[in-house]
Amino acid sequence: MRKIKCRSWGWALLSLSVMLAGCGGGGGGGSSTGTANVLLTDSPACGYDHVFVTVDHVEISPDGNSWSSIPVASGVTQPIDLLNLTNGTLLTLGQAPLAAGTYQQVRLVLKANGNAAPWANAIVLTGSVNETPLTTPSAQQSGYKVVGPFTVQAGTLADLVLDFNACKSIVAAGASGKYLLKPVVTAIAQVVSGSISGSTQPGSRVYAERQSSQGPVIATGTVADPATGAFTLSPIEQSSTGGTVDVVIVPAAPSSGTAGYTSDIIQNVPVVAGGTTNVGTITPAVSTINTVSGTVTVSGLPGAANLVADQSLTATTRIYEVAAAVTTTGSFSLPLSASGPGISTYSPTLPLVFTPDTTDAGAYSITATDAAGTAATQTTNVSAGPTTLLFSLTP
């Protein structure tokens, strides 16, 4: 059994960086090869203290038919706790030569679980010390495929980041007690990515979010250092539609009582390719924290589900994801600020000034999604106190 040091973190976004370091061939002519340097980074995961995975190898393909294998280094053949990789920390998995050219797909292949613990791939629920194996059949057989394209040019450095959304990828499978890994992964060419840094209340969850017709999209996330409050959001793709993100800062809920802090939102923060944007020190205002609790039934019985809390801003019509949780028993609890968030627009002149959003104080929409993908959304307002919601899902 692995020795487990428990932590309670919120939401997670996992990133797999594939760094392709171009090395020119001799004499500057003919074909050339690069070096594929595979790294891992991470941000927190909802409802889990630990997410262990064991990578067997990574494959990369120019056409989806022929694949080049990138083996992992001898020092990282054991299970990796992805939640130890935060605030831009990278873990090198391995290296291999790679020909210059355009590549269309990447495949992440995990090792299969054995018949007993310690498991190759497992989670530890928040507040528990026991590992629960992850069911990952497709990863063990053919790997998780992510579509490019991305280009490795001779004599250049081409980075590819695969953002692995753990909170939406790990699904509780009803009353069976099993957890399924259904990857939600996007590809980012890191040549057009940058980072954002700052500091805030220690232990806060910090997200870089963009708006879409389907709702908020989290580009990446992290947890502010538990001692200093420093945070780094990286990598973030420099979007072709403006190159900005909104930074959402959600302080950790109090371990007891209701004395906490508001969320803060910095809109239109620029993402500079190859650079870092500093947002300074953000000091959240004091707020009461009230709880949205309730139950989820699936086909009439208490069921497992993933839950997400969004907050809409009336003035700007933007929607932000601010909290997430997982339930295996059907019962859930989401601590949320009774006050509206502090709103600021990015400026290079620091510190930033935040204006309280009193219009949207305590107003949230909560979405519950079961293992089959069936979802239901309800609205609630916790400004006056705790509230209760009942979700009934029929796959």
Describe this structure in words.
The protein is 2% helix and 55% strand. It is built from two helices and 33 strands. A hairpin with a 4-residue loop joins strand 26 and strand 27 (318-327). The chain starts with 13 loop residues before the first strand and ends with a strand.
- Tally of helical runs: 2
| Major β-sheet strand ordering | 6-3-9-10-14-13
The averaged pLDDT comes out at: 81
User: Low-confidence spans: pLDDT under 50, at least 5 residues?
Assistant: 3-17, 19-30
| Termini separation | 36 Å
- Which bin fits the share of residues in helices? under 10%
Oligomer, anyone? Answer: single chain
Global outline:
globular
Structural class by helix and strand composition: mainly beta
Rounded to the nearest angstrom, the radius of gyration is 21 Å
Please tally the β strands and state the result: 33
Instruction: State the major sheet.
Output: 6 strands, mixed
